[in-house]
Amino acid sequence: MMDMKNKVVVVTGASRGIGHAAAKRFAKAGARVVLLARNAEAIADLSGEIGAEHALAVPCDVARFWEVEAAVGAALETWGRLDVIINNAGVIEPVAHMAEADPDAWGQTVDVNLKGTFHGMRAALPVMVEAGGGTILNVSSGAATSPIEGWSHYCAAKAGALMLTRQAHLEYGQRGIRVMGLSPGTVATQMQKDIKAS
Hints:
The protein is an alpha/beta fold. The protein has helices at 17-28, 40-50, 65-79, 103-131, 152-172, 190-197, and strands at residues 8-12, 32-37, 55-59, 84-87, 134-139, 177-182. It contains six helices and six strands; from the N terminus they run βαβαβαβαβαβα.
């Protein structure tokens, strides 16, 4: 990994899995990481492991824009800049066929996986535009382009997030902002255990 010394990286879904590992890796490369997740205890533990000089834990539900905006504000207040945001937070439950899916639970998955990605981008973009650059990395999935039985909520949300990534690249790619999607394939996370159990 390149030298990230003094760069500031916001990671959503940092309490476990890909977000947890990414935060540790960026910190090892010299970045200051802002850890976002609903699980306050988990990100506090990770912040303690990384060290207060390089990590800031901000409890946050990405489904609520004002919480994401406040977290970006905390990053700016603490370290004065924002270089990268990794929109990683995601949920898979409840897995169900469409005719049996609970509409409220279905909508909550979309709130986290799609609206949460938008909220991260919306909070970061004005800061990055003003700074003249930045990187947005949206963690995607093969589910963005292929339907999977029982996953209508997840597939629809990830397809939407893929289009948001393309849209942001179109609108801000010429303004010094890199917007990318990353589909990491199968990773040994708790989500994968939940998927196998379903």
